[in-house]
Amino acid sequence: MRFCARCGFPLEGAMVLLHHNGMLPRYETAGGEKKISPRRKGVKQGALLMLIGAVLVPLLGVFSSFAPFRIGLAFEFFAAAAAILCFVGGPLRMLFAALFEEGAPPRQFVPPSAYAPPAIPPPMRVTALPQATATPTAGWRARPQTAEIVQPPSVVTDHTTRLLERSEPEKD
Hints:
mainly alpha; 4 helices; 47% helix; flat
């Protein structure tokens, strides 16, 4: 996202408004049923394959530990095959879908039917600041010399200092 360098305002909304000649975009809703894109479907298939592997491999491992020797070997083989198929095949399926399959079609901008954009061309962009005015501002007075102003004494500090000067003699 881009932001204004001075105030930090996000410029995405302003850029969309400028791109569409000052109109808020209204996107066309897809009529009928929503179809899932092949890319999204492939990513879901890969994730489901990994989830099945996360359940199936430990389950086959538990079966192989409690089964007799020959049947246990078969469970170990199937657990290894399921681990390779699910944990390697799942990410590969997601990668293939993300790289090579077609994504969802872009949404189309539909201008509102009740509002027609103005026929006035946009104002020309100014690239420089306007000329400075030649008349100086009047009515300003000179700055006072603050070094000449005497600060008034502090009432609290002076009163406390005087109390310290008056010390009473101690009585036995």
